């Protein structure tokens, strides 16, 4: 459930220290990443993402007072996939990085590039920035990455809710991630972040201490999906997230109504 307990002074202090550490680690990482990529002629990009992302995120989570765990449900899947996550908190940026997945690229909102750290590292490592408000342009940006993703057997991580600011515990799912899975013939690999919206809600950059778990579930086969049945599949996958969040469609709708008042 969303954050209900009040923030304590120690939580604010830890959050501010976490933000400071995040900035410092990015400042240290940028020249190291640049050198590694130059010396490897760009071939070490996957090593950089797999190594530096959790090396930045996990110490920050520790400073904030957050115990982060990764739990696999079933046999770990190591092939290319469209990885989807639930998105409800600023902490999601840290937990996405902390998972430390191999051969992954992130789909992020265009505005993140206004922060120099995200712009430099994102461009150096080939992340995908989209303008969410412009649907057709966002789709074109995603489809333009298909050749690169297929050629390099890369996975891509997407938040199908689009924004962390949405009504309901699990917001409506947009089509982009599912359209990518169909076009690429990739499975959907669902990750459910448990605790993110309890420790930090919506647009807040402050967080309480506690425990977060990234539940990595078995891949969802999309080989028989089509654009004609995409809405049905979106509903099925979103129902899984509602189940993992401990709510049903009716409860989620009531939450939306209550929070809209």
Short account of what is shown:
The protein is α/β, with parallel strands linked by helices and 261 residues long. The protein has helices at 9-39, 45-64, 91-99, 116-125, 135-143, 146-151, 176-184, 196-199, 230-244, 249-260, and strands at 66-72, 82-85, 104-109, 128-130, 155-158, 188-194, 210-216.
Record keyword descriptors for this entry.
15% strand, 261 residues, Glycerol-3-phosphate (1)-acyltransferase, alpha/beta, 7 strands
Domains counted in the coordinates: how many?
Answer: 1
Number of strands: 7
Q: What is the helix tally?
A: 10
CATH class: Alpha Beta
What is the overall silhouette?
globular
Radius of gyration: 18 Å
Overall average residue pLDDT: 87
How can the largest sheet be summarized? 7 strands, mixed
Order of helices and strands: HHEEHEHEHHEHEHEHH
Pick out the low-confidence regions. Answer: 253-261
Main sheet: strand order: 1-7-6-2-5-3-4
Q: Roughly how much helix do the residues carry, as a percent range? A: 40-55%
**What would CATH call the architecture?**
3-Layer(aba) Sandwich
Gap from first CA to last CA: 18 Å
CATH domain topology? Glycerol-3-phosphate (1)-acyltransferase
Polypeptide structure, described:
The protein has helices at residues 9-39, 45-64, 91-99, 116-125, 135-143, 146-151, 176-184, 196-199, 230-244, 249-260, and strands at residues 66-72, 82-85, 104-109, 128-130, 155-158, 188-194, 210-216. It has 261 residues and is of the alpha/beta class. It has a 7-stranded mixed β-sheet, sandwiched between helices. Helix 4 links the parallel strand 3 (104-109) and strand 4. Helix 1 (9-39) runs antiparallel to helix 2, helix 1 (9-39) packs parallel to helix 4 and helix 2 (45-64) crosses helix 3 (91-99). The radius of gyration is 18 Å and the shape is globular. The two termini are 18 Å apart.
């Amino acid at each position: 459930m969303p954050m209900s307990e009040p923030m304590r002074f120690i939580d604010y202090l830890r959050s501010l220290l976490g933000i400071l550490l995040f900035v410092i680690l990015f400042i240290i990482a940028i020249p190291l990443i640049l050198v590694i990529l130059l010396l490897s002629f760009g071939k070490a990009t996957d090593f950089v993402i797999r190594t530096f992302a959790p090396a930045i995120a996990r110490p920050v989570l520790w400073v904030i007072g957050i115990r982060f765990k990764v739990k696999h449900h079933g046999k770990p899947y190591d092939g290319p996939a469209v990885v989807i996550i639930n998105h409800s908190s600023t902490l999601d940026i840290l937990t996405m990085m902390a998972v430390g997945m191999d051969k992954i690229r992130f789909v992020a909102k265009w505005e993140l590039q206004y922060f120099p750290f995200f712009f430099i590292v994102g461009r150096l490592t080939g992340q995908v920035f989209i303008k969410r408000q412009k649907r057709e342009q966002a789709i074109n940006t995603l489809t333009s990455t298909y050749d690169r993703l297929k050629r390099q057997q890369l996975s891509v991580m997407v938040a199908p809710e689009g924004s962390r600011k949405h009504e309901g515990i699990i917001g409506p799912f947009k089509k982009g991630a599912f359209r990518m899975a169909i076009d690429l013939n990739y499975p959907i690999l669902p990750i459910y972040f448990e605790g993110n919206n309890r420790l930090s809600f919506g647009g807040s950059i402050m967080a309480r201490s506690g425990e977060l778990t990234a539940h990595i579930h078995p891949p969802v086969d999309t080989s028989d999906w089509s654009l004609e049945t995409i809405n049905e599949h979106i509903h099925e996958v979103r129902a899984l997230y509602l189940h993992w969040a401990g709510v049903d469609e009716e409860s989620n709708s009531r939450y939306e109504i209550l929070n809209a008042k």
